[in-house]
Amino acid sequence: MTTKKLSMPPRTIVVRCDNRVRLMSALLSVTTWPEAEQARKRHRAHIHARNTARRVTAHVDHPAVRTLQTLLDQQTPLEAIYTYALSLSWPDLTIQTPVPWAPLHWNEQMADFYRQTGLEAWWREEAAVWERAEEQTRKIIDQADLYSIFRPFVGEVVEQLVLMPSVSYPTDQAIGVRLDGELVCVTPPRIAWGDNEPWPFDEDPGHIYRSALAEYGRLLMVSYLRQNTAEVARVAEQPLPVGEKFRETHPTWSDQFTGLFVAGLVALFLEDALGEQEAKAYILMEDRVHGMTMLPGVVSVLKRYLNEHAEGRYQRFADYLPNFPKHLRVAKGIVSL
Fold it and tell me: Per-residue pLDDT tens for 185-224?
């Protein structure tokens, strides 16, 4: 698949790998996380992920692993776990800013796990694998100006966008983290069919764009809604026309709105960057997997806002928010005809 060349962005997205992310991935590999992924959907993990698990399997009872397993059993979100990891210094893994929920001495356990497992030597052996992931990701993301697409909705993005391709665990989902003036998206390659290896990062640009836009968009919109609590409180009195399946996974108005906004924004970008068929495929997938029957309507509403914003009718997205539920109900009815 080839992408349509977009204008070079005035601000670049930093692509890098991070040893703290790789360390957390190694810890995940000897918890029950890999089995949980397979229970959700059978797939073949990247060969580096599988070999990392074999490399550290003798340390399955290490205190750092047991601590992580306890957090997973308590349903601690990966976003929180990776935020903690990225807040530690490297390579000594000292605590820079205390995290209230974090288990005592977990950073020290992680440092000992790193030493005991010889991960530094393992990563040197596998350096080419990570370098290739960075190169492939940079080739795709450098073609897109993701900063501009957020501007009409949340204003200027002041944070640095950082994209971290990962060939280890988790293999089935991206993770978004806000930390120290950065918005970080850790993303695996796209899962392939059956027992095939995952796709190379540069063979499916849509996957990279979907992951980055979804994580950055969620972090930005959550923050934007918090900054405009008065407007949101009034609008939240109007229920959003979402289906039962979507409501079960997005129980609050803010959850629902953020989920709709992010999916709609991804669809808009895919249509512009990769074409209408790519956007339609994404919309169909979101409907099947997440019950987003209203997504075509969301896309229509976001296009309407962008047009009226460009015409000067709305200066801020917060000014348009009171119209969103009503316009979505109308658009949902039209696109379903």
Answer: 999 999 988 778 899 999 999 999 999 999 999 999 999 9
Mean pLDDT in residue range 304-313: 96
- Whether the Cβ atoms of residue 322 and residue 234 lie closer than 8 Å to each other: yes
Least Cα distance to 87 among 65, 107, 113 occurs for 107
Of the candidates 252, 256, 257, 243, the one whose C-alpha atom is nearest the C-alpha of residue 317 is 257
Half-sphere exposure of 71 (CA within 13 A, CB side): 23
Tell me the sheet residues that pair with 164. 186
Strand arrangement of the beta sheet that strand 14-15 belongs to: 14-15, 160-165, 182-187, 175-179
Name the token pair of 247: 């409501």
pLDDT number for residue 336 = 53
Peptide bond connecting 10 to the previous residue in cis, omega within 30 degrees of 0: no
Give the separation between CA 4 and CA 270, rounded to whole angstroms: 10
- The predicted-structure confidence for 240-280, as pLDDT tens digits, reads as follows 999 898 999 999 999 999 999 999 999 999 999 999 999 99
Q: Which has the closest alpha carbon to 283: 274, 273, 270, 272?
A: 270
Q: Give the separation between CA 333 and CA 337, rounded to whole angstroms.
A: 7
pLDDT digits (tens, 9 = 90+) for 218-234: 999 999 999 999 999 99
How far apart CA 281 and CA 285 sit, in angstroms, is 6
